[in-house]
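Batch 3, record 17
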Amino acid sequence: MKYLIINGSPRKKNTWMMVQQVQKNLDGSFEEIHLFEEEIPLCKGCYNCIMKGEQFCPHKNLIMPIVEKIKEADGLIIASPVYAMNVTALLKNFLDHTAYLYHRPEFFTKKAIVVVSTAGAGQKKVANYIDETLRHWGVNKVYKISLACGGKDSLEREKIDKIAKKFRKDMDSEKLHSPKFMDIIFYNVWRAMALTDEPIPADKEFWFKTELVKYDFAPEVKLGIIKKIFAKLMFNILKRVM
Ligand SMILES: Cc1cc2nc3c(=O)[nH]c(=O)nc-3n(C[C@H](O)[C@H](O)[C@H](O)COP(=O)(O)O)c2cc1C
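Prediction for the assembled complex:
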């Protein structure tokens, strides 16, 4: 298994200790991206990635190599400490640069584990935010480890091991999980948007080129009969509303 670690902390301390504890439970190769080394300028809000395509991002030389590494990885480890009750600006800036993935999700076969450390508050909220973002990217399953104090004592290491082992078992199984109802809704929002009279050009190109526009959900991920009916219903409603 190939794992990509994206470290959103500006240092290698508490959050990194937790990541290292996760790594002890996994088998495979690891590539590390420390966002503090990447020096990605702030997103300029030019809308190029969303409207024209990610290849038009003024910071594409820094962003696209990271996205390529995400594509090559089987599993993702995304880490951030809590800063002012949110992710760090480093991680948020990277997520802003990849906002086009909300419109054009593509990581349907990937699984991820989110690692969040805090001094005392906000860890669940922040882990949930990263989870939500990854699911918008299409990521199939997200595990979450969020701790106050950064996994320094043995009890916390046990907690990390427990969740990391579940992640590993799931990675090894190579089984893809059925999406949540909310994931089906968002997928079909963007799918329906590509079919409006005035679609976003880059979105239209993506949904047609990948042929995802034909599917209730990404074809690699199987839907049961109820979710299939739900997806069709949502798509028809959304197409009409838009
Ligand atoms: C700028 C800044 C903002 C922070 N904001 C919060 C916060 O809102 N709530 C909290 O409980 N801890 C907060 N902390 C503490 C860190 O989340 C905590 O120490 C974390 O484990 C640091 O991880 P690191 O060692 O990977 O940098 C903050 C720390 C810094 C430096």
